[in-house]
Amino acid sequence: MSQSLATQVGSLSLSSCVMTASGTSGHGDELSAYGDLSQLGAVVVKSLSPFAHPGNPAPRVATLPVGMLNSVGLQGEGLAQWIDEELPRLRKRGASVVVSVWGRSIEDYAACGEALAGVGVDAIEVNVSCPNVEDRSRMFAHSAQATHDAVSAVGRAGLTPRWAKLSPNTFELPEIAAAAQDAGAEAITAINTVLGMSIDVEQRRLRLGAGGGGLSGPAIHNVAVRAVFECAKANPGLPIVGVGGVHRGIDAIELIMAGACAVQVGTASFADPRAAWRIASEISLWMHDHGVNAIDELIGVAHG
């Protein structure tokens, strides 16, 4: 019997549990040169806002022995242009599309929801790992109330399903996950990058133009495993999309055993643009070798 990677994330049925991660595969069909996008669970596009945003000053990326630091700063042309130009290309490729959105205020998030009403995306991932200008630039994802308000604002236009992409840089992650669910999120995505910094010791200066940045790659994988496990334990039944340091099929399986129903592949795609497809194949092979027929047999098994 062939192994099934099909999964359910809230009300959304996906043919594969493997997706791309926001910010690592562009705004559109850039990865189509390396594989069939329709074979992935979904393409999760780089986060978009209701307005064009130039991003942070260069340099924006620093490679590390354990991954990378990035401070791209959510650069993008805005939702209107994406809807007109990029979404049709993704649909033509047969991809399931999850659009990631961000804002600097609650009304920005509401504007995202209004812009996406009726355009036909498969899900909206509400990226709350952004500075809240209405709360001293404190990150939305570091507050249960701010997370609730942002997720709720995106849903004012009646959009569903919504997922909330959460930050690991807080001790209240399970409670914030619950707040997102209470606001109407059908799932959470855990985790976003870990705050970090790197110094060029020869030049005696910071390596990123904006100062600090987000650490991603293998270094944060076990942070992601713990975050998924704790959110699943504290919020039974809440669908979780696991992301963080997924470079091999076994990394994805670990997140699924921790409680994720799907995974996203991010930083691995920079070194290997075919990583998402390769990792899906590695998951299938592991399942075959271990007598597992369907991915849902593995979800949360580490909880006993």
- Approximately how much helix is present in the residues? 25-40%
Which structural category do the helix and sheet elements fall into? alpha/beta
Q: What count of domains describes the coordinates?
A: 1
And the CATH topology? TIM Barrel
The number of helical elements comes to 8
CATH architecture: Alpha-Beta Barrel
Number of distinct beta strands: 18
Q: What report would you give on this structure?
A:
The structure is a single chain. This protein is an alpha/beta fold and 304 residues long. The chain has one domain: Alpha-Beta Barrel (TIM Barrel), CATH 3.20.20. 29% of the residues lie in helices and 20% in strands. It contains 8 helices and 18 strands. It has helices at 79-92, 106-116, 144-154, 173-182, 221-234, 249-258, 268-271, 275-289; strands at residues 7-9, 12-14, 18-20, 43-44, 61-64, 67-70, 97-101, 123-127, 131-132, 138-139, 162-166, 187-190, 194-196, 199-200, 205-206, 213-216, 240-243, 262-265. It has an 8-stranded parallel sheet. The chain has a 4-stranded antiparallel sheet with strand order 5-6-16-13, with no helix packed on it. Helix 3 (144-154) runs parallel beside helix 4 (173-182). The longest helix is centred in the last third of the chain and has 15 residues, at 275-289.
Set down the secondary structure blueprint.
Blueprint: E1 7-9, E2 12-14, E3 18-20, E4 43-44, E5 61-64, E6 67-70, H1 79-92, E7 97-101, H2 106-116, E8 123-127, E9 131-132, E10 138-139, H3 144-154, E11 162-166, H4 173-182, E12 187-190, E13 194-196, E14 199-200, E15 205-206, E16 213-216, H5 221-234, E17 240-243, H6 249-258, E18 262-265, H7 268-271, H8 275-289
Helix pairs in contact: 2-3, 3-4, 4-5, 5-6, 6-8
